[in-house]
Input
Amino acid sequence: MEFTKSLIKGKLIKRYKRFFVDVKLNKETVTAHCPNTGSMKGLLEEGNDVYLLKHDDPKRKLKYGLEIIKAQKNLVGVNTHMANKIVNHGLSNNLINELKNNDIIKPEVFFNKDTRFDFFIEKGRERSFVEVKNVTLFRDQKTAEFPDAITTRGSKHLLALIDAIKKGYKSYLIFLIQIQNMENFKIARDIDSEYYKYYITAKKAGVNFLAYRCKITPKKIEIEKKLKIINE
Output
């Protein structure tokens, strides 16, 4: 996924009220929209390089949006709204080995009245639901982790993916790692033990778990490489 225009580099001052970040651009301080409601654990150190996208829409109250943070020498894509766009691009361009050459790719499809999965895909007679989780947490220089906070919504999605299998679909969960240089992925069991428990249950039930790292530059973010999941 290419950005619509070149990103502007600045220095992080602080994040507050979840949706706002103050950033130093040259000698000016601007307030930008933070498109990530998660904890962003490990990313918010004052002085970190950040990359903003400037918006031209006169109706927007905030003219800048936060897209990338550089933390511990790694670029991290923090816009959670980009995750599905990146995966859609990956599905459409056969960048995900397990999900190539699909006949139909539909985003945002309801499975039942309470649950909407990120993608529904068809290949021949095989029908699958795909859920995407954006990953921005890393506590060493090789291993990405999810979640970065307790996620009851994430646990609910795991149970729904199990239910989809019972109804004849295949189920996939893609951990999209928007972090440079990672080589492995694991569930952050110490952060959310319940999610880890449901992950194990879902794996035994036949849910397919995939971890893919992105290539990240100030010009574009796209799927680059499959990573090993090391919880097993």
The chain has a mean pLDDT of 95. The chain has three helices and 16 strands.
